[in-house]
Each structure stands twice: as structure tokens, then as C-alpha cells.
Write a structure and sequence with these properties.
The chain has about 210 residues and is α+β, with helices and mostly antiparallel strands. Helices cover about 30% and strands about 25% of the residues.
Length: about 210
């Protein structure tokens, strides 16, 4: 797969050397890259080609990356930088070496309440920090929660263009995209997300745990 991916081996902005693909979703693909300037590993999310209204998606990608970059919390995957490669916007993020909460659930759930709370509490803290600065995640699900090899729980995709797989729903005017299983009823009926929407989704994740 690496050999067929045109980005692998390239250097973006003379700084980020793309090493390999980590994950692909409906709107974006995430790559592992090496920051040549600071000599560290980073994750780069780049918007997929062929999206319907690419200008609208690019504007969202840019605006939401700026918002997420202001969110600094130990349980949030940090946003370092943003740029554009041949017209496709990308976001440079902290690379969390570990596994997703989905992988933890597949292996360990159902788990004892105390253990489930140890995973969900950092998620709730991250959401609270976001809500305090007016950010709503809109796509809380186990795939967007990373558990590092040291056991630190971090929420990814805060306010970013979502890398969506499987069943998705688009709310009014196509402004919100999320995974069906975790979408609160009011988002489907009104198309509006509030902080309560994230609480609902986190509750579904806790149930899965």
C-alpha cells in the first residue's frame, strides 16, 4: 500500500517527511511523518481528493484547525501546524504511539466499572476543556480516543474535519458529519450540536466499555 501512495516519501513544506499511512477515513487520511526541523515524529491529517465541495471542506479544515490549535490539555491530541499540499489542506498533530479505545474495547470489554471509568474520565476532562472554550467535538467515538503505550488517554479530532468511515449522517447544510451510532437525536432532528451532544456520545462509549 505504501508504494502505491503518492505522498509516502514526499516532504511537505520542506519540513515534514511522510513515512507511512496510519489511517484513512471518508474525508481525510492520517500519515506518520518526521518533522525534519524539530526531529520528532508527528501525525499529519490531509484532506482526501475528490470531495464534492472541496473549497467548503478546505475552509472548514482551516477554520477548525485554528480553533483546535488553541485547545491545550493533557488529554487532547495537540495540533502543531497546518499547511497545504497542492491545494489539499493538512494539519500536523501530536503522534500518539499506542492503540485506539476501539481496540481496547474489542479486547477487554465488558470491563469492571472502575476500569471503564479510568478510560472515560480523561475523555470527559478533555471534552470539558473544549466546551469551556466553545468547541464541540461532534464525533466522540472509540476510534477517536487514543491510549498511549504509557497509558495516557487522549482525544483526537477535536473540531477537525472528520475522518469518517462506515455509516455517516450529514446534518442540515452539510456542516456536520458524524458516525451514526454515536449521534444524539437532537443533531439528527435539528442539525445543531451543543456540548450536550458530546455528553450523549461519551455515554454511548461508556456503555460499550
Amino acid at each position: 500500500e505504501r508504494s502505491r501512495d503518492g505522498l509516502v516519501g514526499q516532504v511537505l513544506d520542506d519540513r515534514y517527511e511522510v513515512v507511512g499511512k496510519l489511517a484513512r477515513g471518508g474525508m481525510a487520511t492520517v500519515y506518520l511523518a518526521h518533522d525534519l526541523r524539530l526531529s520528532r515524529e508527528v501525525a499529519i491529517k490531509i484532506m482526501n481528493e475528490g470531495l464534492g465541495d472541496s473549497d467548503e471542506f478546505a475552509r472548514r479544515f482551516d477554520a477548525e484547525a485554528r480553533a483546535a490549535a488553541h485547545l491545550s490539555h493533557q488529554n487532547v491530541v495537540s495540533v502543531f501546524d497546518q499547511g497545504s499540499d497542492r491545494g489539499r489542506p493538512y494539519i500536523v498533530m501530536e503522534y500518539v504511539e499506542g492503540r485506539t479505545l476501539r481496540q481496547v474495547i474489542a479486547k477487554e470489554a465488558p470491563m469492571a466499572p472502575e476500569k471503564a471509568l479510568s478510560y472515560i474520565e480523561p475523555v470527559v476532562k478533555a471534552l470539558a476543556a473544549a466546551h469551556d472554550v466553545g468547541l464541540v467535538h461532534c464525533d466522540v467515538k472509540p476510534e477517536n480516543v487514543m491510549v498511549s503505550d504509557r497509558g495516557v488517554v487522549k482525544v483526537a479530532d477535536f473540531g477537525l474535519a472528520k475522518a469518517v468511515t462506515g455509516q455517516t449522517v450529514t446534518a442540515t447544510q452539510g456542516l456536520l458529519i458524524g458516525t451514526v451510532s454515536y449521534i444524539p437525536p437532537e443533531l439528527v432532528t435539528s442539525g445543531r450540536a451543543t456540548s450536550r451532544s458530546d455528553v450523549y456520545s461519551a455515554g454511548v462509549v461508556l456503555f460499550e466499555l
